[in-house]
Amino acid sequence: MKYSTIITLFLLVTFSVIPSFSQPPQREWRRNWGFPYTNEAAYSVASLPGNGFVVGASTRIFSNSGLLLGFTQAGNVIGYQPELPTGRIYSIATLPETGTAWISNGNSIILGFTQFSGETPWSHTLPGFSRVVTNSNNNIVTAVSTDNVIGAPVELRTYSNTGTLLTTENYYLDNNGESAISSLSITSSGQYLMSGVISINDELQGWTLRLDENGDSLNVIYYRTYMHTSPAHDNGFYAFSLLTNELARFSATDELVWETNVDHYHEPDAPVPTADGGVIVLGFTGDGPPSAVADKFDAAGNALWSYQTQGPWFEDTYAYDGIGLEDGYLLVGKTDWPQQDYNYSQIWVERLGLDITDQRILAWPARDSVVVLPGESFRWNGRLKNNLSEPVTTDVWVQVLTPGGTLTDPVHLWEDVALSADEVIQVSPFQYVPTWVEPGTYHYLVRIGDYPQERYEDVFQFTVASTSSTSSPSEPDDWRLRLR
What's the whole-number mean pLDDT along residues 121-150? Predict the structure, then answer.
């Protein structure tokens, strides 16, 4: 037992820019993902070995199960795994060799996962709300609090990458309080930051435990309410208080450096550290249909910019987690889609770039999801932009990747498309699906470059539902584009 010393692309998406000290980054791509007419939401994200991302989410299509969804850096779907016995996946961490480990506060389960193979080689039930990280030894470390038990300790459990429990350490904060975990992270020196809230006589107090690499308690800091923390570059940390909407910076010696108020309504998750030493706080706006928002602060606490994004038809949109990359940011959340008789939601993922100084192409279907029969057509939208201050010429072409992995010849090729400085060209063509294609999930690739060498691409999925066609073949009965 340990006792602590107390001190104190056009998926028809719109975005808007809020005036600030500097302009926010540009969106490179956005993906909306979900099963038809059900509820999906993304709550966590982590980098994947091999330069991609894995999103922790939930879906109700399989009895409110957990869902993992993988993307490449370019936004292409690597794979997905539903029907995980976790409910909402609020915390996820990756392992270089064995895939990923994730944790859920719903059923309090931690599982090992072999990347998108459907295998879960081990699992453990935990006593309550938890968070997960992986350390430099490729061990899985969880912070755990026991639900609804006054005086119960918070725990730090370490597992091997094969799921064997190695150590359990207990930390007692107050015998009269009920503690809950909100975040767990590792500093640049390998120390652990375990944060949460304790309720004593109906009063809430935020706290952070600083532990060394062996789990020995170094300090506990109390601050505001519902303390959510992320490490800073100098072994200090950022703390966000949900109820007071205050962001604070603490030094490596746990002294308060600065604090500032954050506009908007923010989600109960840790601030997102960024490559420049600053931090992003995620949440949503409160006026009208909520927009997802990311507020950026530098290491001195100065507000730099605020970025907002909404769904295709201005639906309620929320941001839940993100990653600070060397050249931008990755944000995830959910978009609500109100229908006449039922409301459902989808996962959204956005990649923001710090300095886009080239041509870019965005492509997205005109409907939120595309399900067609052979012989039918679907409409999609494309947006080509020249981000340079001088004219450029590029080829643009479309190809289809079949469920069997075959890449078609170009469905359509626009050669030598000329764009003046900062020019934008938009199209909304129809894609015909031949009568002879097999059912399954297809990838629609819109590429730019010097054909056949692409410089950049955007991709979305569509589904061919059956081999039975209700339409007569349209000649020629092949993949082809109709521009009007």
Answer: 86
Indicate the average pLDDT of the chain.
Answer: 82
pTM of the model: 0.71
Residue 355: both structure tokens together: 């300095």
Say whether pLDDT at 120 is over 90: no
Note the pLDDT tens digit of each residue in 178-229. Answer: 888 889 999 989 999 999 888 887 788 889 999 999 999 999 999 887 788 9
Helix, strand and coil content of the chain, in percent to the nearest 5, comes to 0, 55, 45
CA distance 257 to 279: 15
What is the distance between the alpha carbons of residues 161 and 296, in angstroms, rounded to a whole number? 35
Q: Are strands 359-365 and 377-386 parallel, antiparallel or unpaired?
A: antiparallel
Cα–Cα distances in angstroms (integers) from residue 208 to residues 107, 119, 252, 475, in the given order: 24, 35, 13, 67
**Contact between residue 400 and residue 461 where contact means Cβ atoms under 8 Å apart:** no
Structure tokens at 160: 């091997």
Q: Please tell me the distance from the alpha carbon of residue 295 to that of residue 284, in angstroms, as a whole number.
A: 10
The residue among 323, 356, 389 that closes a domain is 356
Residue 140 has pLDDT above 60, yes or no: yes
Q: What is the pLDDT of residue 343?
A: 67
pLDDT of residue 2: 44
The owner of tokens 């000290």 is 21
Say if residue 14 is in the same domain as residue 156.
yes
333-345 CB burial, b ≥16 within 10 A, e <16: bbbbbeeeeeebb
- pLDDT tens for residues 388-418? 778 989 999 999 999 887 889 999 999 999 9
* Cβ–Cβ under 8 Å, residues 110 and 120: no
Q: Of 181, 173, 160, 41, whose CA–CA distance to 105 is shortest?
A: 181
Domain boundaries, position 296 = 2-356
For the chain, what is the domain count?
2
- Single-letter amino acid code for the residue at 483: L
Radius of gyration for the alpha carbons in the chain, expressed in angstroms and rounded: 24
Choosing from 356, 388, 419, the residue where a domain stops is: 356
Cα(262)–Cα(240) distance, integer angstroms: 9
Instruction: Answer yes or no: do 457 and 322 share one domain.
Output: no
Residue type, 331: L
Q: Say if residues 76 and 459 touch (Cβ distance below 8 Å).
A: yes
Q: Burial, 474: exposed, middle or buried (Cβ in 10 Å; 0-12, 13-18, 19+)?
A: middle
